[in-house]
Specification:
The chain is α+β, with helices and mostly antiparallel strands and 396 residues long. Helices cover 63% and strands 16% of the residues. A five-stranded antiparallel beta sheet has the order 1-2-3-4-5, with no helix packed on it. A hairpin with a 5-residue loop joins strand 3 and strand 4. It is elongated and about 100 Å long.
């Protein structure tokens, strides 16, 4: 049996690696819109883009690992079944149950890898992206500065520039409305100016040349005009971003100890309490999906022997989408407080696991599995659940 187990395990590795690479690439491609915006609008360096993509990978791997494990088991058993290797093993007295150890090893390894990502990788990655984004937004003086566009990124200040050279930080035909002092609103016009950054990168000095300041004092109902040769206006870069957003630690960025302490702290605040509980259970329910989906893939792979590999890919995608929809619906119901969050987050694993056990027993005993009837029933259940969810949400 050891030789057979080694053969099966070696057969699992190539589809696992291919799926890991393919799915990670697909998920990273979804970030290209955000990356393109950073490059075009904010002149972000390639190194910063690389770090953002690197820190985003743990978030993707949380879902890539379970799906890759399921697809690896499904495709491997489909190939063995299509080549009549499963039938040959059965005729030699090897039951389907004896083929489970290498599959179990892969599922457990995927579970542990996903658990590492949910507990350590994803929180650290999200915190790193948040700090990197905050540092990027507060250190680049030309953030959001575009020619012939009104820029109101700075609190109380509207800036318009007809021409701008981002390399030399020089501007032409500058118009500024300064409303930081409500009692005296200033309008500044200058034919040229330059951006100067302080050593810490927290503020920007906008130096204007040969311009005019029109100041209106509402209380005194008076207006003054001042001509200048050189005039400096200081702008705080931290006001261009939501500082609290980047300094506040969210539930999905906390360690297990921090999350447990936070749950005890917000126990009397139902909305935050349920959100924190959902995040806690999700750290363990998603890794457990490797076991449930891996088990379900065994009878599916054996039963789909007469179909093309593309059909197997479609079946795998359908099962994972079904799992994701059930998990999302369970999360929504948990956030609404209809039941304990653990029920909604663990229910998909229980359903998939029980379905896998049922189909495995039927397949091992060579009894009809009613596989496609089972899948259609799951589809009807998912449709009814979504309709019920939409009905309850619209009623609120």
């Amino acid at each position: 049996m050891l030789i057979i187990h080694r053969y099966i395990f070696k057969g699992l590795i190539p589809p696992l690696l291919i799926n890991l690479l393919f799915l990670t690439t697909v998920f990273l491609m979804t970030e290209m819109v955000k990356i393109t915006k950073l490059i075009v609008n904010y002149n972000v360096s390639p190194a910063t883009i690389g770090f953002i993509l690197l820190f985003s990978i743990p978030h993707f791997l949380v879902f890539v690992f379970p799906m890759s494990v399921m697809m690896a088991v499904l495709l491997t058993l489909m190939r063995m079944s299509g080549d009549n290797e499963i039938a040959a093993l059965k005729s030699g007295g090897v039951s389907l149950y004896k083929l489970l150890p290498p599959i179990g090893i892969l599922a457990v390894a995927g579970c542990l890898a996903t658990l590492f990502m949910t507990v350590y990788g994803m929180p650290q990655g999200k915190m790193a992206i948040k700090h990197l984004t905050y540092q990027m937004l507060t250190s680049n003086t030309d953030i959001g500065l575009k020619a012939r566009t009104f820029n109101d990124s700075f609190k109380g200040v509207t800036l318009y520039v007809n021409e701008v050279d981002l390399h030399d930080k020089k501007m032409k035909d500058v118009f500024i409305e300064d409303r930081r002092n409500p009692k005296a609103i200033s309008t500044i016009v200058a034919p040229e100016g330059q951006l100067l950054k302080d050593s810490e990168g927290r503020s920007v000095r906008l130096r204007l040349y040969h311009g005019m300041i029109n100041q209106v004092e509402r209380g005194k109902r008076s207006a003054n005009a001042i001509y200048f040769t050189t005039y400096d206006i200081n702008l705080n870069m931290t006001q261009t971003v939501n500082v609290k957003r980047y300094l506040r630690e969210e539930e999905d960025e906390m360690s297990l100890a921090e999350l447990n302490a936070y749950i005890l702290k917000v126990r009397e605040r139902p909305e935050k309490y349920y959100d924190a509980l959902i995040e806690l259970h999700q750290k363990f329910s998603i890794p457990a999906a490797c076991l449930a989906l891996g088990l379900l893939a065994v009878p599916l792979g054996v039963e789909l022997k007469s179909t093309r590999r593309s059909a197997g890919l479609g079946m795998g995608m359908f099962i994972f989408i079904l799992y994701y929809v059930l998990m999302t619906a369970g999360r929504v119901f948990g956030e609404m407080g209809w039941y304990h969050p653990a029920i909604g987050l663990w229910a998909p694993n229980i359903l998939m696991g029980m379905g896998g056990i049922f189909l495995l027993i039927r397949t091992a005993n060579e009894k009809p599995t009613y596989l496609f009837e089972f899948i259609r029933s799951l589809g009807r259940f998912m449709r009814k659940m979504l309709q019920h969810l939409l009905h309850r949400v619209t009623r609120r």
